[in-house]
Amino acid sequence: MKRTVLPGGTIGVLGSGQLGRMFAIAARRLGYRVHVLSPDDDTPTGQVADVEFQASYGDLDAVGQFARQVDVVTFEFENVPAETIETVDKFVPVFPGGHVLHTTQHRLREKTFLAQAGIPVTPFLAIHSAAELEAAGDEFFPGVLKTAAWGYDGKGQAKVASRTEALSAWAQSNREQAILEKYVDFAAELSIVAVRGQDGAMTSYGPIANRHANHILDLSVAPGNFPSQVAADAIEIARTILVALDIAGVLCVEFFLTNDGSLLVNELAPRPHNSGHLTVDAHVACQFEQQARAVCGLPLACPTQLRPAAMVNLLGEIWQNGTPDWLGMLAMPDVKLHLYGKKNPLPGRKMGHLTVLADTPESAAERVQAARQRLRRGRWTNPEATGFGLAPAGL
Ligand code: AMP
Prior knowledge:
The protein is an alpha+beta fold. The chain has three domains: about 80 residues, Rossmann fold; about 60 residues, 2-Layer Sandwich (Dna Ligase, domain 1), CATH 3.30.1490; about 190 residues, 2-Layer Sandwich (D-amino Acid Aminotransferase, Chain A, domain 1), CATH 3.30.470. Strands 9, 10, 11, 12, 13, 14, 15, 16 and 17 form a nine-stranded antiparallel sheet that branches. Strand 12 and strand 13 form a beta hairpin. Adenosine monophosphate binds next to strand 13. Adenosine monophosphate (AMP) binds next to strand 13.
C-alpha cells in the first residue's frame, strides 16, 4: 500500500533509541510531527519527539491508540513483535512492512532468504541441539555461534575456536535456536546504506569502511578505500535486496570483504544504521531524512557526500573514570558531538558519537580518534579492535 504524508503530518516511530532520536530531528526539520512508542520514558527519541507514548509493544490496545493518532508508522529497531506491527497496520501503513521485519529480525530466516536470492553469505548452519553441533562439518570451525533472534551489538554471540568450545557455549546459552557461522578471516568490513522510495526509486551511501571492536562498531570512514568493482558490486547487492524484500525505507547491508576480494553479506538492518551516522554531517541529505522521505512517500533526497568523513562511537566505557573531558575535546573546533540523552553509561552502551570532516578519509579518521582520546580521563585500556584490512593506510 502506498501512502503520501505531506510535511505537517504526523509520523509514528516504534522504538525510542538514538536511531529514533536522529530520525525525529530530521523529520521535524522537514516539518513533521513525531510520536514515539516504547516501554520506556524520557528516552533518546522521546526527548525530541512531540509525543512520547509509554507502553509495552505487547499492549495492543495502547498500540492501537498510538496508531490512531499518526498518519504513517516506521520503526527504529527490528525487534518489534509481529503482532504489534499487525495491530498498527489495521489503522495506518508501516514502512518498511511487517514482512521485512519478519525476515530481518531472525538471523536464520535472513540468511536463508539471502542464500535463496542468490546473494553470497557467510557459510552457516541452523542449530537447535548439541547433536547438530556434533554433526557440523569441520569447515565451520573456528566459527561464531549466534542466537537466531534478538541479537545485536555482539549480544548472544560467541566466537568458538573448536567444536568443544561450541558445545560449551551452547550449554551455557539458553539453548534456543542458534546459527553457527564459519569465522570469516576478512580483509575488511564495509556497509552500504541504501534507500528505496514508495515509487521504487533507489539511492545509496557508501561503501563505508567499518572497524568493529568486541563485535560493536567502533569506527566508520567514508568514502571507504575499496576497488571500484567491489564498490559497484556492493551497491548492486544492496539494490537487489531492496527489491527482493520490497522495502520502502532504508536498508543497511553489512559486508565482509574476504582476502580473495569477494563480498559476503554479514547482516541486514531495515533502518538507518550506525555506520550511516556520518551522513548527518557529511552529506547533502542524511540517512534519517531519506527514511522520513521514503516512509512519507516523498521523492528521495540527494545523497552526495560533501567532504570525506569519519565517525567513532562513544560507548559507556568513556565514562569509566568520571565525566568525560568535554571541554578538552570540544577545543577541537571541527569535531561534531552527538549525544543521545542516555543517563546510564553502561559498558558497551552506545551513548553518542563524534564525526569529523577533513580533506581525506585518513585525516578524518585520525582526527576523530584523537578527539575521542581527549575525552578519556585517567588510565584507559583500548578495547581490542579488529580487521580494518583494506581501509585507508594509517588506521
Ligand atoms: P553481527 O552482529 O553479526 O553483525 O556481528 C558483529 C561483528 O562481529 C561483525 O561486524 C564482525 O566484526 C564480527 N563477526 C560476526 N560474525 C562473524 C563471522 N562469521 N566471522 C568473522 N567475524 C564476525
